[in-house]
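Researcher: I'm preparing a figure for a lab meeting and need a structural model of a single chain. I don't have an experimental structure, so a prediction will have to do for now. The sequence is pasted below. Please return the structure as tokens so I can convert it later.
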Amino acid sequence: MVAKIKTGRSILGAINYNEHKVRSGKAELILAQGYLKEPSNLSFSDKLNRLTDLTKRNERTQVNTLHVSLNFAVGENLDKWTLQQIADEYMEGLGFGKQPYLVYQHYDAGHPHLHLVSTNIKPDGERISFHLLANKASEQSRKQVELNYGLVKAEDQGKAQHNIKSLSVEQVAYGKSETKRAITNVVSEVLRTYKFTSIPEFNAVLNGFNVTADRGSKESRMYEKNGLVYWALDGKGGKIGVPIKASSIYGKPTLKTLEGRFALNEVLRKSLREQVKYTIDDLLSKPIGKTEFQLKLKEQNIEAIFRHSEDGRLYGVTFVDHKTKAVFNGSDLGKNYSANSLSQFFARSDGSIKPSHNVELSGNKHLPDNTGINGNNNFNGGSALLEALYQEEKQDMAAMGRLQQRKRKKKRRGHSL
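Model: Understood. Here is the structure written out token by token.
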């Protein structure tokens, strides 16, 4: 659990921030400690006056507002009662257990978190010192709460989120959870872990979690303005519910944001292309039907997603490698992996005719047996490929460097004209 403390001069500002979230459906008041009414019965004035009445008892103290956020690791979906207990125990350890405070549960990010609002002015007008509050009392209280409730430690939270497998993200089930929060979780994780270079490739992954990114029709105003929304999908792949604007989702995965990621991913996935081709080539070395081809790839954690026209014609294919998190349109791998070539290959296979020279293998016969192509994830070190798989941060920095070099070269050429 990560605790972030802010102190300020405005009780009104802190409450307004959280109440705005409540009004927009992004937060809920789950606890009002030290108040005479239940949270659901409190008016805005009730919430504000309980705290400002205390601040008036010590008008010499200008910094009188405490605003804390308690952030839990992705996947720690705690029930409301447990969150209330955590808030109580944390505030007790912080030295604010006898102060009135409000606890809001927020739903506007990819991770569960609470916001707590209180004041440091006691009923007798005495001031609770904010000095070293974040570095000492908060740290001690946080660690005790983590221990009591078995929470992911703050020191390990970044590491835990880095190691989350995207396949562990739950599919969006419309009506069973708050839609925006569920979509945010999926979009954030896919954007963070997968390497795609277009909206269709992005959707090839999102659709597996019952989410789709939608630009609208080419004639629509949204498309013209480069807008983007996210929909939940039903079991048949149809859009359901109300679309969520990209700009309102945590991290703002708008079209502009995605296009910046496309350029980086183009570099990041480059070293992973041959491995996917090698796996496909192995299956295409003998006659095989489309359905069997998909099943065999799936055994090796690669999805082949085919797109068909209304008359049943195969016109597109996307490969999603869940081991390396790389996504490739068939034609990006080469002509022989395009929908048209594969369609012809499957037709010949169904006719019991072995593939001819039209299906060329990529020639990667020297890949070692321990590359993990057999379906497991036991990659051994040494190669650039393994560096790409296990050192994402190093890989990202190198890729960004190469992109910057390309930009500088283009800029110099422009000046020389």
